[in-house]
Amino acid sequence: STTDHIRNFCIIAHVDHGKTTLSDRLLEQTSTVQRRDMKAQLLDSMDLERERGITIKSHPVSMLYQLDGKDYLFNLIDTPGHVDFSYEVSRSLAACEGALLLVDAAQGIEAQTVANAHLAMEQGLEIIPVINKIDLPGAQPEVIEQQIEDVLAIPREEAIHASGKSGIGIDDILEAVAKRLPPPRWTEGPCARVLIFDNVYDTYKGVICYVRVFSGTLKAGDEVMMMGTGQKTIIKEVGRFSPSMIPEKELAAGRTGYVVTAIKNLTEIKIGDTITQASDPASTMLPGYKEVRPMVFSGIYPLDTSDYNKLKASMAKFQLNDAALVYQPESSVALGFGFRCGFLGLLHMEIVQERLRREYDMDIISTYPSVVYKVKLTDGTIKEVHNPVFMPNTDLIEYIEEPTIRATIHTPSSHIGDILALVSEKRGMCDHTETVDGTRVMLVCTLPLNEILIDFNDRLKSITKGYGSMDYEIGEYQQSDLVKMDIMVNAEPVDAFSSIVHRDKAESRGRVLCERLKEIMPQQMFKIPIQATVGSKIIARETISAFRKDVTAKCYGGDISRKRKLLEKQKEGKKRMKQIGKVSIPQDAFIQILKTS
Ligand code: GTP
Prior knowledge:
Elements: E1 6-13, H1 19-29, H2 47-52, E2 61-67, E3 70-77, H3 86-94, E4 98-104, H4 111-122, E5 126-132, H5 141-152, E6 160-161, H6 170-180, E7 193-202, E8 206-215, E9 217-219, E10 223-226, E11 232-241, E12 245-248, E13 250-252, E14 256-261, E15 274-277, E16 296-302, H7 308-321, E17 326-332, E18 336-343, H8 346-358, E19 364-366, E20 373-377, E21 382-385, E22 397-412, H9 416-425, E23 429-435, E24 440-448, H10 449-452, H11 456-463, E25 469-480, E26 482-489, E27 492-493, E28 499-502, H12 503-520, E29 528-534, E30 537-544, H13 560-575, E31 577-580, E32 583-586, H14 587-594
Parallel strand pairs: 1-3, 1-4, 4-5, 5-6
Antiparallel strand pairs: 2-3, 7-8, 7-15, 8-14, 9-13, 10-11, 10-15, 11-12, 11-14, 16-18, 16-19, 17-18, 20-21, 20-22, 22-24, 22-25, 23-24, 26-27, 26-28, 26-29, 29-30, 31-32
Helix pairs in contact: 12-14
The chain binds guanosine-5'-triphosphate (GTP).
């Protein structure tokens, strides 16, 4: 058929196993880009991505390849590696027929290797295992081959040994893509079915959708319909990335590329939706479409209340580029006016906050993150609560349910005891364990999502000295004995510090929070009590003693300019404080507090 020469594939890997380096090498080898034109790393574009070493969003790239006199069109689709974006990963995989599964030759199989491989298998993709970084002195290709066979049930003979750095095995990989991966599937349908697997906002063109055409064709001028939302629009442009945008007359069945429509707002186009021709619509959508729902919520407030409008404008602008972020205005007694924001997960939350600070130059405070609780009230109704402030009074509550996760943890066997202790400390249960090879184990655990929000991953890394990894998927809701804990500073509740905790943990957590606050808060002009309460009961208490800090005292008689500098500095310090009643709380306190418990 006419699509025999097309291969749509992606590269899946654990963080840092060398995906970007290898992708760049494939582009270079197929002369899609010249070596001298390549920036150090072509596919990762945002600064933050580079710093954190995660791929958030990169576009699909088309390459031309020849083998035995036959011309192939390869479309390499990038997938974000992190679990927060797992729906996006699954949509990107759905656009492919095959995947290169990279495994670091020294590190071996990690949590995301397994999670991503399973996602790819669920989509029915053909998998080519690649043992990467074979040039490393610590490379153990035989051990890794065994892991691939044991953990993923892929025959070891299929693994290609490669190095994105030195170029070993690159030709083998390209040849395997042509020979082992199947041509595009589902091309026969009479009507157009086009999967939107990702999208980005472009200031000039509006929303650019990354698409995979399964059947039919799309071209500029077509009136199309989004089957999930029912929205109709006109196609303005179609084309491919090679690697920059190259417009084409049409995108036919089997192809991967981009589509620009008249829709200007990212939130109106859903990832996973199916585009069809409005005049001749397909009868069924492509499988797998779902609305993504935020899992983690947190308040974001301007440090300086007069910055509210600036923050509002920044949030609106931010959402243009990130449709997964949801927000609505809220107000807090302690913090004034701000926004309640919903995120896909913790990493997503951190990225949003960090970008607001850096790219939008906002001084912001974020409140303790919360999951979405389902509260069964005595009147029989169910209320969803994602802000502790709105937790109903205990006498109105029949029970509370919280979301759980199913976590897969990989760790060196020597740390298994400590990991099990951590899981149980976090109210988790280990469902089963499996040996990866003589030195590593895989644990499958169920944990409350709330318990892994803050420091679970850091703790895991520190216990395993960096050799452990985790991946998770959202599990069921479960009933738990949860209570709302408030923090009172100078007898006033600081709503931004309220949180929902398990009853058994309230006291120890309250104590830690009070101690931490005492450490963080500067001494004030008067004595201040800090208390943790559950209902009307005080469960922990600390006192900040009175003291007046005079930073200039030591420069007695000294040089005036130095004294002025210190005063300036003190003023700076004041600016970064939040006034709560008569007490100033440093901006930092809100962030520091997040890191306890
Ligand atoms: P994320 O996109 O952040 O998940 O990372 P990645 O998987 O794209 O990894 P990347 O290509 O950024 O490589 C991670 C690190 O491994 C970098 O320091 C690379 O220089 C190094 N690296 C990548 N490929 C090889 C290789 O074949 N051999 C060696 N020795 N190092 C490599």
